[in-house]
Design a protein that fits this description.
This protein has 432 residues and is an alpha+beta fold. It has helices spanning 2-23, 30-55, 57-78, 85-112, 118-149, 154-173, 185-258, 262-276, 287-302, 320-339, 391-401; strands spanning 306-311, 347-355, 358-366, 405-411, 414-422. The chain has a five-stranded mixed β-sheet with strand order 1-2-3-5-4.
Length: 432
């Protein structure tokens, strides 16, 4: 009957991989990750199964951490997008859940199956797919969002999970398999009962972090909308005031010309020109987008930055809410970056133009020496305190709403943010 035990072990090892990869973030595309996993983990699983057949479950159970856990940990760490607490927590969580299922089915088979391994096999055939379904149905989406948004607290959770995994592995296999120590089974069952409560506590804490992130994210969007509306209102009021004052300027200038006071008229025109220069810039015809760009153009002027704006859009209807989010977050990051540089290095450029059915936005700014960002990565914020770290994530989310993409990278001492968004209802002939 040991054939049933070996089959259940093979089934368990493969489903540990499936459970882990449902929640895992690889640095490679799905197809590449799958091929690398098959090439590496296939032989590793085969060697462990062969070890169970040759040396028995008791011996391999003691060596499992060395023969399977640590090699697989190293492999997935190499290809992981995350290298710190997020990765280790996900890895230990998947392994612990799998070890829990294996331990429960082993105990049930010992008490009720007479160690014929029938209940062990049936239990694992049911519980592993059930765990994967629950992970896919209820956990995957919020958990991936949590990994993307929350940066703190992962190391503590990873440490808790790793200790629990070691506790479970040691209690299940040392000095002999737990079924060979019936006097310790009650304690072991209590440990098994404690695990769901432990994970419930961890996930409640994580879910609260996710809710906090969403709240801060909403506050950030509302703040961007407030800035946009205030800037637009300020532009409008300044222009209306200038139109009103223009009547007085014309009357005064006409009087000076009629009196032949040419020198005084020239001086007066210069003062009017200076007054006109304080008006907000007109970078494009769209009032919302122009308001955002004008606001950050002024901020960049205030810090002494050289700013070049090239907005090749007209009066066509645009999804200004998402575009304003992209521009405001990108320009906020650029402004923060150049403030810390020497005055002569403070340079920012903004481009917005059409490429067929796409609107392309590029924000480029000089960055600090030594900064390197590979294309496709999102660098973590180095700011401290409340409300930081949402800019590029917000840009990526806004681009996704418009069926577009975002890329950021460093090149020749510059940080480049490229955003391409799809415009479904573009008017023909809009290209410039």
């Amino acid at each position: 009957m040991t054939v049933l035990r070996d089959l259940s072990l093979v089934w368990s090892l493969f489903h540990i991989l499936i459970l882990f990869m449902l929640l895992y973030r690889s640095r490679y595309p799905g197809r590449t990750t799958f091929i690398l996993t098959v090439i590496t983990m296939g032989p590793l699983i085969g060697l462990n199964v062969a070890g169970v057949i040759l040396y028995g479950a008791g011996v391999m159970g003691k060596l499992f951490i060395l023969t399977c856990t640590l090699p697989s940990l190293l492999f997935f760490w190499v290809i992981s997008k995350d290298k710190k607490g997020k990765f280790f927590f996900t890895f230990c969580m998947a392994d612990t859940v799998a070890l829990w299922i294996m331990a429960v089915t082993n105990v049930v088979d010992f008490y009720f199956g007479g160690q014929r391994y029938i209940l062990m096999l049936l239990g694992r055939l049911v519980l592993f797919p059930l765990a994967e379904w629950a992970a896919l149905r209820y956990l995957k989406k919020p958990y991936l969002e949590l990994q993307e948004s929350v940066t703190e607290g992962w190391s503590v959770f990873a440490g808790m999970t790793a200790l629990y995994y070691v506790l479970l592995a040691v209690e299940a296999n040392f000095p002999v398999v737990i079924t060979g120590r019936p006097q310790e089974l009650p304690t072991f069952i209590l440990i098994l009962g404690l695990m769901p409560l432990t994970y419930a506590t961890i996930f409640i804490a994580m879910y609260r972090q996710l809710l906090l992130y969403r709240k801060r994210h909403s506050e950030r969007i509302l703040q961007e909308q407030k800035i946009s509306l205030e800037a637009q209102l300020g532009n409008r009021e300044a222009i209306l005031k200038m139109k009103h004052d223009m009547r007085g300027y014309v009357v005064t200038l006409s009087g000076l010309l009629a009196a032949g006071e040419m020198k005084e008229a020239q001086n007066y025109l210069k003062s009017v020109e200076i007054q006109m220069s304080t008006l907000p810039g007109q970078f494009c015809a769209n009032p919302y987008i122009n308001a955002v760009v004008s606001h950050y153009y002024q901020k960049l002027q205030d810090v002494g930055a050289e700013c070049r704006i090239d907005m090749q859009i007209g009066e066509e209807e645009l999804p200004y809410m998402e575009l304003c989010q992209i521009l405001s977050n990108g320009l906020e990051n650029a402004c923060d970056a150049v403030k810390g540089l020497e005055p002569e290095k403070r340079k920012v450029s903004v481009q917005m133009k059409y490429s067929r059915d796409y609107l392309v936005i590029r924000i480029k700014n000089r960055c600090r020496d030594g900064l390197y960002v590979e294309k496709g990565e999102i660098p973590a914020t180095d700011k401290e305190g409340y409300g930081h770290g949402f800019g590029l994530a917000t840009v990526q989310e806004a681009a996704g709403k418009l069926e577009g993409e975002m890329f950021c990278y460093t090149e020749n001492g510059n940080f480049v943010l490229d955003v391409m968004v799809f415009l479904k209802h573009r008017k023909k002939g809009a290209d410039r």
